[in-house]
Amino acid sequence: MGRKRFVRAHKAWRILAMTDPQNISAFDRRGFLKTGALVTVANLLPSMVSAQNKDKEIKVALIGCGGRGTGAASQSLTVPGTKLVAMADAFEDRLNSAYGELKKQFGDRVDVADDLRVYGFDAYKKAIDAADLVLLCSTPGFRPAHFEYAVEKGKHVFMEKPVAVDGPGIRKIIEAAKAADKKNLKVVCGLQRHYQNDYIATLEQIKNGVIGDIINTQVYWSGNGVWTRERQPGMTEMEYQMRNWYYFNWLCGDHICEQHIHNLDVSNWFVGAHPIKANGFGGRTSRIGKDWGEIYDHHYVEYTYANGTIMNSQCKHWNNTWSKVSETIIGTKGTAESGVIKDRTGKTIWRYRGEPNNSYQTEHDVLIQHIRENKPINDAHYTAEASLTAIMGRMATYSGQEITWEQALNSDLDTMPKVLAWNADPGPKMGPDGLYPAPIPGVTKVF
Q1: What is the DSSP string of 331-355?
Q2: How sure is the predictor about 27, in pLDDT bands with cuts at 50, 70 and 90?
Q3: Nearest to 217 by CA among 329, 314, 309
Q4: Which sign, positive or negative, has the C-alpha torsion 144, 145, 150, 152?
Q5: Which of 104, 130, 300, 321 has the fewest Cβ atoms surrounding its Cβ within 10 A?
Q6: Domain segments of the chain as ranges
Q7: Cβ distance 170 to 164 under 8 Å?
Q8: C-alpha–C-alpha distance, residues 214 and 365, integer Å
């Protein structure tokens, strides 16, 4: 970065730190200078925003009408001045269910014309075209295409995590995120811990040196599994996999991507970097059968950061076993979890005493505030890093090899089907026993 651009970016960072601590807490000075150098100081000042922009109704489109999408739409509509004007989903029944639920809850603020309740593989385009703000809540494999199109059309975006399931998808997200910066678009992503008060306060304590230098992180998503949906008579293979999207990598990326990404992201956020390599193991020992698709039911990954810090990561879907969903940050002087810090003897030396908040709601409050006040925000950068961290871990457990960040990012293994149609081949296929083959370390190719 040139000297003049550096000075402008540094000045912008200082103004944002003073005027918007909620936003600046989501990334440090170095991260802002890296991703926000093109932002001008004028764009950061609320006084530059006209009253007309503050009062303008924001038209919202929902892409992906499952449970998380319906929840995101509800949270967006909770913010005054928003109206849902378009909805899209692959399935008509899922769209209609979400429409009915939201209409009952919000009445006239759900104003979706019949021709803007659209379904099918390409339905997202018509819905995005109709809105100012789009909520990208479909299954993760479709996220890169949806985000690319939304940015191309100049729309502000809320999108769920993960933002991709493979290297080619991550590269699309990265390029679209850069384009969003150039177009001054606002992007918030569903890694809601960045908007949770106790996490933000804990990070501030760590930055102030309370636990010393970070030397290790331990992150967990260990619990029971999730739903399955039975194959129905006449259902094509494409529809079956779409209905059971959690169990197929081209749609979900495995549960290390879909759920454990939250914990991996916290480690990256608190360390202030992404890992440079990963090795690990996993498999299927509990969840074996025709209903469980191709993914693993457990993963253990050792990640290494450039400064030598190690992240030990474990996630599993085993019923009736020990469960934990959390992150522990270990320093030379103590350890931190969300809202609690202990010294090396185990004595609590700090506890968060502030107000709790609903971080799922705060995400949408912050996004719409930034749209109205024309303040920069783009979570896609760190969410792409968190997503690739999970993908890199999956590649390591599936292959049994040590995988570097560059190998994961530059992998040409594109998991998406070549054709998206209900009678098209989605890729994964059952064996003669009715089971989908699981990855085999030492055999499975991940590049």
Answers
A1: ESSEEEETTEEEETTS-EEEE--S-
A2: very low
A3: 329
A4: positive
A5: 104
A6: 3-194+361-378, 207-354+388-410
A7: yes
A8: 32
Query: Tokens 């807490």 — which residue?
Result: 25
* Sheet (strand 310-317) strand order: 348-351, 340-343, 334-337, 324-331, 214-223, 310-317, 298-304, 277-283, 403-404
Residues 374, 385, 190, 353: is their CA dihedral positive or negative?
negative
Cβ of 14: how many Cβ atoms within 10 Å?
15
Q: What is the model's pLDDT at position 55?
A: 74
123 is written with which tokens? Answer: 């339905």
pLDDT in tens, 250-270: 999 999 999 999 999 999 999
Contact between 187 and 156 under an 8 Å Cβ cutoff? The reply is yes
Give 53's pLDDT tier (boundaries 50, 70, 90). Answer: low
pLDDT 10s digits, 203-234: 999 999 999 999 999 999 999 999 999 999 99
CA separation for the pair 170, 385 (Å, rounded): 8
**Domain spanning 207-354+388-410: which CATH class is it, in words?**
alpha beta
Tokens of 333: 């002087």
> Which two three-digit tokens encode residue 148?
């690319």
- How buried is residue 354: exposed, middle or buried, by Cβ count under 10 Å (0-12/13-18/19+)? exposed
Question: Cβ of 15: how many Cβ atoms within 10 Å?
Answer: 14
Q: Which residues pair with 219 in a beta bridge?
A: 313, 327
User: Who has greater pLDDT, 54 or 196?
Assistant: 196
Do residues 254 and 394 make contact, with C-beta atoms less than 8 angstroms apart? Answer: yes
Q: Is CATH 3.30.70.100 the classification given to domain 3-194+361-378?
A: no
Phi and psi at residue 363, to the nearest 5°: -50, -50
Mind listing the pLDDT tens digit for each residue in 147-199? 999 999 999 999 999 999 999 999 999 999 999 999 999 999 999 999 999 99
pTM of the entire predicted model: 0.88
Residue 27: φ, ψ to 5°: -160, 155
| Cα 273 to Cα 385: distance, rounded to the nearest angstrom | 9
The amino acid at residue 198 is: D
The Cα–Cα gap between 53 and 184 comes to 15
| Distances from the Cα of 205 to the Cα of 209, 258, 268, 390, angstroms | 7, 29, 16, 27
